[in-house]
Amino acid sequence: MNLNIQRPIFSLALVSLLLSAPTLLGQAPEGTVAIEQDWTVELYSVSDPDLGITNPQFITGFAIPNVPALFQVTWNHRDIPIGEEGGIQLQAYSWDVLQDDREILTPAWKEKLSENNETVTWTQRLHISELDYVFTVTNIAGKTWGSIPGPYSVTRRFLSWTPPLELYTYEEIRRNTGITAGSNRFKKMAILETRFYGANGDLLSTDSEEKVLFQQAEHFQY
Predict the structure, then answer these.
(1) pLDDT one digit per residue (tens) for the chain, 222 residues
(2) Which of 58, 64, 181, 217 qualifies as a FRET site for 129, CA 20 to 30 Å off?
(3) In a domain, 221, yes or no
């Protein structure tokens, strides 16, 4: 069954944009209770805040196929409780119902991405804690926001049983990740490495192959 639990902001144009990337497939090893990914976004440029436009804006997601749980990070915008430009926000959903949200504290005078040729890196992690999925973002780094070590977390609680993480696929991450504004300003969005951990914190396996979700040549930038 395909849950199709993306938020309504994902337009057909955004879906077609990301479908141009290669299909990304993978599966967690048996006994996985935590999955950790290192991400990067490389930008050609950002919009001039003085013009009243805040671009680019994008979302990265984490979901397990056939599980009613979706985690999203909104970058350079926030939409809970109302839409606001700038900043970073974590959100946790059951189907399309918000379960938890948390704003990441960026410098008050630099909430909006403001540096051309910006590279932003961070780590996303999903782990099982009893009846909870806990989604955490750490080690955000970039020219605009500086270093934000975190951790920042949101939680999705299940009633009696926590679905295992072994059904994890890169495809599900790709389906729930996208550029919502200013795609012309992007050079690349990619997962640099994925690590799978067992119940005792032991590293089960590492996938060091870069997974490119979006990439374009410089002549598309303006």
Answers:
(1) 233 334 433 333 333 344 333 344 448 999 999 999 999 999 988 876 656 668 899 999 999 999 999 999 999 999 999 999 999 999 999 989 999 999 999 988 788 998 889 999 999 999 999 999 999 999 999 999 999 999 999 999 999 999 999 999 999 999 999 999 988 889 999 999 999 999 999 999 999 999 999 998 766 554
(2) 58
(3) no
How far is the C-alpha of 17 from the C-alpha of 112, rounded, in Å? 24
| Domain carrying residue 148 | 12-214
Q: What is the pTM of this model?
A: 0.86
Q: Which residue has the tokens 């993306």?
A: 6
Answer for the pair 25, 171: CB distance below 8 angstroms, yes or no: yes
Q: Please give the single-letter amino acid code of residue 126.
A: L
Is residue 6, in this structure, part of any structural domain at all? no
Q: What DSSP string describes 107-164?
A: -GGG-S---TT-EEEEEEEEEEETTEEEEEEEEEEETTTEEE---EEEEEE-SS-PPP
Structural domain count of the chain:
1
Is residue 220 assigned to a domain?
A: no
